[in-house]
Amino acid sequence: MNPCPVPLLFEDSRPGRRCLRVDGDDLDAARAGLPESELRREPVPLPESGELDLLRHFTRLSELNYAITTNFYPLGSCTMKYNPVVHEAIAADRRWTGVHPLQDGDETQGALAVMRGLERMLAELTGLPAVSLHPAAGAQGELTALMVLRAWLVENGDDARRTILVPDSAHGTNPASCTLAGFAVKTVRSDERGLTDLDHLRELLGPDTAGLMITNPNTLGLFEEDIRVICDLVHEAGGRVYMDGANFNAIVGVARPGDFGVDMMHLNLHKTFSTPHGGGGPGAGPICVTAELEPYLPVPRVVEREDGTLALSEDAPRSIGRLRAFHGNFGVLLRAYAYLVRLGARGVRRVAENAVLNANYLRVQVREKWRVPFDRTCMHEFVARPTREMREQGVHTVDVAKRLIERGYHPPTVYFPLVVPEAIMIEPTETESRETLDGFAAAMAEIADEALRGDEALHEAPRNTPVGRVDEARAVKRPILRWRPDAEG
């Protein structure tokens, strides 16, 4: 009978069981080839704990996590949106989780059909006919699209075009993606209304312009009213327009980027299309492009064979190739497919309408005691900031964020976008109730009153959490990565 390769704490004499206690000669055999320095002299010091104590321990740990299932999560531009439990059940079904990327295509027609169907729905929503599900997340979608643009420029003899224009209200990953793709970046100013300054754009356009990366709606929660003119100007200069689709939930089913001149964009399936996205993953960032850019999309792609079946094909000689292995987080694609099929065209449009309604409802309440720099009809999010009187009391945005934690709310995105000093970017999403929005507005109003009184609670918060306010600069330079008895709270 063959022993297990590691010592066990039990013996199993049941018929057919192959794992027994390893001792004597068997133990010597298991140790063979291992360095003497790696062998233990004493048993592993495992803690003694009852089952109930252990369950309580892990339950308490789970209660320290903040999630969309516990309370309001108004992170601007990055909010966890609708994550229905039924989608989790679908994605966890073993008939999906058991599929292997190297499996023969004849055995994976269902998975390929989901991918093909999702591509077609995303093409319809964006107005861009060619879709690649390849990128792993939004930032990789940006990089992939820029590499597609670079390949198109090279083939058309325009490799000298190495400058990408990026408005100052765009997402922060845009300049980094440009640099990785081999482009230089020039920043386009915002005008007094928070929109792209057309005069400054015209000044920056030239023979070196490869394209423009624009976030629309932008990070101020404003739709670029001159987007058609912006696209025309870039096209006239010989460049192409990339739209960051992280805020697409504000216009999905209402406006199609391809219709107003966008040439390529990415979509965050893990934000806009129902996959929970906490802790950095999982993600998916498909890109949608015009027909002229389609030949350069990464491989493999889902294609239809002559007999009507589907397959993954790498037959694309002008493709930029692979950026990653296969299509990675298939469960994210599956959730997005289920989300779109369940909602349909009318339901998808209601997503955008409700997102805009909730944001404006909250904006009107918050502006009563906070400054809203661009106080007009917004899209899915808006930006507020402390008033001058609050700042004179020594109150800053970080104090507001910490005080909200005490009140049970996850803080909004703070200090971004950079065009608004002390920014508080608030996105209520399309799925929050009026009662939730009213509760958050009331908390913001009470914090405003505390700020005007110079209440010390603002500087001391949070006081009801396991870890209080940390020295953020020190935490970055000297993080405590494991618990130790002498660790400072």
Question: Quick recap of the structure?
Answer:
The protein has helices at 24-31, 51-63, 85-92, 94-97, 109-126, 138-155, 173-180, 198-204, 227-236, 269-272, 330-366, 388-392, 397-406, 434-453, 457-460, 472-477; strands at 130-132, 163-167, 184-188, 209-215, 240-245, 264-267, 287-289, 301-304, 310-313, 382-384, 413-414, 424-426. By secondary structure, the chain is an alpha/beta fold. The chain has three domains: 1-43, no CATH class; 85-342, Aspartate Aminotransferase, domain 2; 350-477, Alpha-Beta Complex (Aspartate Aminotransferase, domain 1).
Write the layout of secondary structure elements.
Elements: H1 24-31, H2 51-63, H3 85-92, H4 94-97, H5 109-126, E1 130-132, H6 138-155, E2 163-167, H7 173-180, E3 184-188, H8 198-204, E4 209-215, H9 227-236, E5 240-245, E6 264-267, H10 269-272, E7 287-289, E8 301-304, E9 310-313, H11 330-366, E10 382-384, H12 388-392, H13 397-406, E11 413-414, E12 424-426, H14 434-453, H15 457-460, H16 472-477
Parallel strand pairs: 2-3, 2-4, 4-5, 5-6
Antiparallel strand pairs: 1-7, 6-7, 8-9, 10-12, 11-12
Class from helix and strand fractions: alpha/beta
- What number of domains? 3
Unreliable sequence segments: 1-22
Largest sheet, in brief, is: 7 strands, mixed
Regarding quaternary structure, how should these chains be classified?
single chain
Number of E-state strands: 12
CATH class term of the largest domain = Alpha Beta
Measured between the Cα atoms of the first and last residue, the distance is: 53 Å
Rough shape? globular
Q: Report the helical percentage.
A: 25-40%
Strand content: 5-15%
> On the 0-100 scale, what is the average pLDDT?
88
CATH architectural grouping of the largest domain: 3-Layer(aba) Sandwich
| CATH domain fold name of the largest domain | Aspartate Aminotransferase, domain 2
Order of helices and strands: HHHHHEHEHEHEHEEHEEEHEHHEEHHH
